[in-house]
Design brief:
263 residues; alpha/beta; 6-stranded mixed sheet; 7 helices; 24% helix; globular
Length: 263
């Protein structure tokens, strides 16, 4: 079973019209199913009454059943909420024709698939910008390997993929891998939503998550809320699993509430 975690994010950049705006954040489902047609997951999302639903990657993998389950879940969610989706490294590793078909099915189900592009979300005459970043696969290599090869994802590299952030509005970023939070915040993301780390698989009190998917011990951004330079990031523990067993690390449905911070 999963646990619902609630977060409140204050920001001076947020328009007053978005006070109390709620986001249901799903990540790393990996084909897991919560009841027939994911009814338990859908029920908890409905109880939160979100204004939109976002999916930050690794929602499906190589098994046909996982892709069909994701499409069914997406269709049911889209009947009640705007849904925004970005691929994670597992979707990027699918064969090109398989991913193309999955992408088309998600769009047909009603989801907005954001691949290095942005869209506006409007409310009561105001708007915020939602960006979807797709990281090139070379950035998913181990930290040691990338350090040796001097591969580093920077805000400048991010600008080449997404363009410049708009400093005049609240910028919400979806990016699967939280490791690059310094680049996201320096680029101009007021709030980043990520997953990928699975909470570190084993949560050790006082130390945090033990292991990341790139086999790095004690990843810096394992799960929960992080704030640096007045920029925020929520890292979901994910809803599924594809390696090892979770210990003191429940699967997560994240509900994020935006709040206008005092000037």
């Amino acid at each position: 079973m999963f646990k619902t975690f609630h977060y409140t994010i204050p920001s001076k950049q947020l328009p007053k019209a978005f006070e109390g705006f709620r986001i249901a954040h799903l990540s790393d489902l990996h084909g897991a199913v919560y009841g027939r047609h994911n009814e338990r997951l859908l029920q908890q999302i409905a109880c939160a009454k979100p204004h939109c639903v976002v999916m930050t990657g690794d929602m499906a993998g190589h098994a046909i059943s996982s892709r069909l389950g994701l499409i069914d879940l997406c269709r049911r969610l889209c009947a009640h909420h705007p849904v925004y989706y970005i691929p994670g490294n597992h979707e990027q590793c699918l064969e090109a024709d398989v991913y193309t078909a999955l992408r088309a099915d998600l769009v047909n189900a009603g989801a907005a698939v954001l691949e290095n592009r942005w869209c506006s979300i409007s409310r009561h005459g105001s708007s915020i910008k939602l960006y979807g970043l797709v990281l090139p696969m070379r950035y998913y290599r181990s930290r040691l390997e990338n350090a040796i090869k001097k591969v580093r994802f920077s805000d400048k590299a991010m600008e080449k993929l997404l363009g410049a952030a708009d400093p005049s509005c609240f910028n919400l970023l979806l990016s699967h891998d939280p490791l690059h939070f310094p680049a996201y915040r320096d680029w101009g993301a007021d709030l980043t939503l990520s997953g990928h780390i699975h909470g570190g698989i084993i949560q050790i009190p006082g130390l945090g998550g033990l292991l990341s998917p790139d086999v790095t011990l004690f990843p810096r951004y394992d799960c929960g809320h992080f704030e640096e330079n007045k920029k925020h990031m929520i890292v979901s523990r994910g809803l599924g699993n594809h390696f090892l067993f979770r210990v003191c690390d429940p699967a997560e449905l994240a509900i994020i509430t935006l709040s206008k911070a005092p000037a």
